[in-house]
Design goal:
Blueprint: H1 2-18, E1 32-39, E2 45-49, H2 62-73, E3 81-83, H3 86-90, E4 107-109, H4 110-119, H5 123-134, H6 138-151, H7 174-184, H8 190-195, E5 200-202, E6 212-214, E7 232-240, E8 244-253, E9 256-265, H9 268-285, E10 289-292, E11 298-305, E12 308-316, E13 320-323, E14 333-338, E15 343-344, E16 352-357, E17 367-371, E18 373-375, H10 377-384, H11 399-436, H12 444-455, H13 467-473, H14 475-480, H15 482-485
Parallel strand pairs: 11-15
Antiparallel strand pairs: 1-2, 1-9, 3-4, 5-6, 7-8, 8-9, 10-13, 11-12, 12-18, 14-16, 16-17
Helix pairs in contact: 2-5, 2-7, 4-5, 5-6
Length: about 500
């Protein structure tokens, strides 16, 4: 039954979240092909149009590029310099793309490369960053970008380059890009770069004596522009002939933080006008967060360890805060749990609470998933400490095992006795044989050994020393056998 419930929840989420245009809420745009607005805190989709359609992103690609560079640097930028490769520069030949005229062999501080890529939308800067976080070539960096896409669980994105020049294998969707920006804002230093509004100065380098200046290009962040919006904190512009105009931004008003992405606006003015329309509508519709208390749904989850079921723990929704459109309440939110068949000790507990908004025409009908709350684990582990698991009987020694062990020890002892008797009998036979045949000097072998050891300076005794001491020292010959002195030790007296 639990499997069936989980499967139905998954299907429901696929229908609600991934289906383009499902239960669409928000303004209908004609000059812009697709858009998506999400809550920057939870990732909850608030409004959208064709949000899962795969389109050319142009330079908003650089959001992922910048984020991965920030993730690698972990806020430690000072003293980090990147060397421009041949590929960084010459791979852009004939593309008529934006750049800051980097030269092969030029040493560029990481900070300069970040701001050049963000503010000047420098494609050569993006190449340089891709080599940095990729750990080798631009291709390595692109592979890292796609790996991060998979880690985020995004189904409509594939990158072919780090800068956004259009190609058949380079695409994303508004929903995916909104989630990429949300993840990017969590990386150390990214928001600082993304939201900088004042001019940035790049100092001369080892190859270029000129000073380069990067200024804000987004008219909605320039106070003198008629498109200016106070609430936009940071943004990234994009344009190619194929992609047309794209836009990604972080905006805030009255404590509400939104991420807005638009793609394929026909004109630059359309882009600005449509983003203004979307943000005005969103901030008017979503004015504050609604707190949802936890514990509304619970379930028992079996816990396994050591090959046995240890007991059960209680799983409950933890409570959360959601951006609900004005007019909607907590009653418009359905809560369910997403659970595995059992929780195996040592694994990450894949238990989630799923909050589904029934927004109708006021808000996108979609869901958000958060880690569920687990209780009773400490008590369960305490009860299980020192207890014999059911499966342990399979490996515990029984009466038959002890009997077999005794028989084995008895056989070993008997074999040892027999061996000693045989050796004694053999020695007696050899002594009798020597008496009736030739005379054997049993000490001659020991003397040869002592002479050899004395010559090799491995023994301080000589043949004049008492024989017991020489016998003791010359055991080395038996260890080394013929390798040490060439003596046939089988003739040496034992």
């Amino acid at each position: 039954m639990k499997k069936l419930t989980t499967a139905l929840c998954a299907v429901l989420l696929m229908i609600l979240v991934l289906m383009p245009g499902a239960a669409a809420a928000g303004p209908a745009l004609s000059a812009t092909r697709a858009y998506c607005i999400i809550d920057a805190d939870t990732g909850l989709v608030l409004a959208q149009q064709n949000m899962n359609e795969e389109l050319h992103p142009a330079s908003i690609t650089k959001v992922m590029t910048l984020a991965l560079a920030c993730e690698k640097a972990q806020g430690s930028w000072d003293g980090v310099k990147l060397t421009v490769s041949h590929e960084d520069v010459h791979s852009l030949a004939g593309t008529d793309s934006s750049h800051i005229a980097l030269q092969e062999g030029e040493e560029v501080p990481l900070t300069d490369a970040l701001y050049a890529t963000q503010m000047a939308s420098a494609n050569d800067g993006a190449n340089l960053l891709a080599e940095y976080f990729g750990g080798g070539t631009i291709a390595d960096g692109v592979a890292k970008m796609n790996a991060q896409v998979r880690e985020l669980g995004l189904a409509h994105t594939h990158f072919a380059n780090p800068h956004g020049i259009s190609g058949d294998d380079h695409y994303t969707s508004c929903y995916d890009m909104a989630q990429i920006l949300r993840w990017a804002l969590q990386q150390p230093g990214f928001e600082t770069v993304f939201t900088r509004n004042e001019m940035y100065t790049m100092q001369p380098t080892n190859l270029q004596p000129v000073t380069r200046y990067f200024s804000q290009q987004d008219k909605m962040r320039i106070g003198s522009s008629r498109y200016h919006i106070d609430g936009i904190l940071g943004s990234k512009l994009g344009y190619t002939n194929t992609a047309r105009y794209s836009y990604a931004c972080l905006a805030e008003q009255n404590g509400v933080r939104l991420i807005c992405v638009t793609m394929q606006s026909e004109l630059s003015t359309d882009k600005y006008s449509d983003v203004c329309t979307l943000l005005d509508d969103a901030f008017a519709t979503f004015t504050g967060y609604t707190e949802l208390s936890g514990g509304s749904v619970t379930a028992q989850l079996p816990v396994a360890g050591g090959g046995s079921t240890l007991g059960t723990v209680t799983v409950a929704d933890p409570g959360t805060k959601l951006l609900l459109a004005d007019g909607l309440t907590a009653k418009d939110v359905e809560v369910s749990l997403e659970l595995p068949e059992q929780y195996l000790l040592g694994d990450d507990p894949a238990v989630y609470a799923v909050y589904t908004i029934r927004g109708g025409t006021k808000q996108e009908s979609t869901s958000v998933k958060v880690p569920a709350k687990i209780s009773g684990m400490a008590d369960l582990l305490a009860q299980s400490t020192g207890a014999q698991l059911a499966s342990s009987g399979d490996v515990a020694p029984g009466r038959s095992a002890w009997m077999l062990a005794g028989i084995s020890l008895g056989c070993t002892a008997a074999a040892a006795v027999v061996t000693v008797l045989v050796m004694r009998l053999g020695n007696r036979i050899r002594r009798n044989t020597s008496r009736h045949g030739r005379k054997v000097d049993h000490n001659a072998g020991w003397r040869q050994c002592a002479q050899y050891l004395a010559r090799q300076k491995r023994c301080r005794h000589s043949i004049e020393d008492d024989l017991p001491a020489v016998h003791l020292l010359c055991k080395l010959c038996r260890i080394h056998r013929r390798k040490a002195c060439g003596l046939d030790t089988s003739t040496v007296s034992q």
